[in-house]
Amino acid sequence: MADPMRIRAQAAGDKTTVRVLMSHEMETGQRKDSSGKVIPAWFIQEVGATHNGKSVMTAQWGPSVSKNPFLQFVVKGAKAGDKIAVTWKDNKGDSRTDEATVS
Question: Which tens digits make up the pLDDT trace of 37-71?
Fold first, then answer.
């Protein structure tokens, strides 16, 4: 299982800025190791976010996203104490979900 995501959700007025740092190697499938063998592709394909259980964001990613990707988005209507959950799933079937409380 991958390391936990670092999620920060800060409310300002009626908008909440959510910042997420994901821990993932994100291999493109085009690099070679020291012996010349191709390193298999391994990258996040799907990312989703929920606000108190209701979907507020979905994204489809590919192999060109950097290692340990950073994501930022804005949610309207979230208040202090609300829950924001972020989930990702990679091309090998691994997934991770973490949650933060809006401050």
Answer: 999 999 999 999 999 999 999 999 999 999 999 99
Q: Are 75 and 84 in contact (CB under 8 A)?
A: yes
Residues 6+ apart with CB under 8 A from 5: 20, 21, 22, 23, 86, 88, 96, 98
Phi, psi dihedral angles at 69 (to 5 degrees) = -65, 150
DSSP assigned state of 68: S
Q: Looking at residue 74, which CATH number applies to its domain?
A: 2.60.40.10
Q: How far apart are CA 31 and CA 33, in angstroms?
A: 7
